[in-house]
Fold this sequence. Notes:
single chain; alpha+beta; Rossmann fold; Translation Initiation Factor IF3; 3 domains; 11-stranded mixed β-sheet; 5-stranded mixed β-sheet; 14 helices; globular
Amino acid sequence: xxxxxxxxxxxxxxxxxxxxxxxxxxxxxxxxxxxxxxxxxxxxxxxxxxxxxxxxxxxxxxxxxxxxxxxxxxxxxxxxxxxxxxxxxxxxxxxxxxxxxxxxxxxxxxxxxxxxxxxxxxxxxxxxxxxxxxxxxxxxxxxxxxxxxxxxxxxxxxxxxxxxxxxxxxxxxxxxxxxxxxxxxxxxxxxxxxxxxxxxxxxxxxxxxxxxxxxxxxxxxxxxxxxxxxxxxxxxxxxxxxxxxxxxxxxxxxxxxxxxxxxxxxxxxxxxxxxxxxxxxxxxxxxxxxxxxxxxxxxxxxxxxxxxxxxxxxxxxxxxxxxxxxxxxxxxxxxxxxxxxxxxxxxxxxxxxxxxxxxxxxxxxxxxxxxxxxxxxxxxxxxxxxxxxxxxxxxxxxxxxxxxxxxxxxxxxxxxxxxxxxxxxxxxxxxxxxxxxxxxxxxxxxxxxxxxxxxxxxxxxxxxxxxxxxxxxxxxxxxxxxxxxxxxxxx
Length: 491
């Protein structure tokens, strides 16, 4: 039986950790700030990976892999990049250990000191652009559209499983283009990919926007993002796509001969999402009973629980359950019959509820006789008796209904937790009493942005794309503003 899950209303942070642990998504590592991703967590990430990888390949991208270790001098070539990542870098200085002179342990062998320190990959722009500078000579070599699935290390001081860990899994795309317009088009195309994935598969509505200068990626000209709102009223950055201009091409002297036989620097983008998406999914949909999975991302969509007390009923019940499972699989639904002995049906019901399986079917002797099953929906808890005839169609329709319900529910939550304010007093009151996305005017100054962040712990999550112009005044300085930005406290 799973441990008790703390109620969200009592302690949201502990609730989140309880869900991660009880749903068997991840466990703590002996290395501070890292996590062990368990099979359920890996299965979820693999499903996300398959969907996203297909979308990337549909838009012309290929997968490659670049080294985990990056020469320190590479990081130093792009000034904004090194400033942004210097405090998060793990550094390799020696290649081996030896016994200490007092025999009390191992120490770095002084004779193995590296000629140059190596940085454990926090992101790959530098090593990739060193490579691209050798691959690109002519306009005929462009565009390069490459993605890699990898792990990265960022030496975070305050960590939380999936949301912020020192090592995490992600994908990072790095593309090279002949023109500025092509690079910007690529940046926005990937933003569209991330948006459709979040909304259509994760059932998480997102805001699309551009980051302010202080919040953009280190070394980018512009950072575009998707922002999601969690149940506790905090925002979560769910994906970013960066227009890098020619910054890294200049840093690594990556030039090409254009069609007019003139040399110019390459234009570039980078973009990525990570296992943080699992955290976003948990905090958007899950409840006090445990994890809730959107059907389109659940590696197991339907679990079938055989129920019988007498050995005489066992064969008929298992045969019916197996037949139902086969028909569902034939219809493209992932299903499994839980035939484990020694576990009571109620225990199994609870286990699959905690793990978020979208639909649970129970089959007993009476169901065999009546040609029915009991169907329970994870999103609503509703139980209905359903005929076995046409069950595959009914299950498919119900899975789509669950997917839509989760999205609609998250949209309603975002709508009721989105507020327009005009004064700083209103702004602070909404943050403290309601949370969520707060739309307010901003004069565009770093000083105003920094003051609000310091005093309220809220940041500008994005400047929304395609919003209508609206003249107003900055709520602190009183200076003119051409539109509202989105503030929130965030993970």
